[in-house]
Design goal:
The chain is an alpha/beta fold. The chain has helices at 4-12, 58-71, 86-95, 105-108; strands at 17-24, 32-39, 45-53, 79-82, 100-103. β1 and β2 form a beta hairpin. Residues 17-108 form the MULE transposase domain.
């Protein structure tokens, strides 16, 4: 899910650095919540999109990143930051081959 106003804000105002990650849901349905966030000029977290999947795997991340790719106007200037999970890394290489890829400093430490 991505809200139209957030998409417009991202394409015109927000820094083109997207942080992606997932968290496991421990409720009755299980699965994972996939998220894509950025930061605005005031260092406030800016939600770009989120989605639900059965597991954190290459197929789930590929689906999610394909949806995000459709939202972005300036693909050549985007940077993706993640924890370099195998599923994320494989999907980023397939969907955003020309984008800069970074690793989260927290996860690196």
């Amino acid at each position: 899910m991505a809200i139209g106003a957030f998409i417009e804000g991202f394409n015109y105002v927000i820094r083109l650095v997207i942080c992606i990650d997932a968290t496991y849901l421990k409720v009755r349905t299980r699965g994972v919540l996939l998220v894509a966030v950025c930061k605005d000029g005031n260092e406030i977290i800016y939600s770009l999109a989120f989605g639900f999947a059965n597991s954190e795997c290459t197929e789930s991340w590929t689906w999610f990143l394909k949806k995000i790719r459709k939202l972005i106007q300036y693909l050549n200037r985007v940077m993706l930051v993640s924890d370099r999970h195998n599923g994320i890394f494989n999907a980023m290489e397939a969907i955003f081959p020309d984008a800069a890829h970074g690793i989260c400093a927290y996860h690196l430490a």
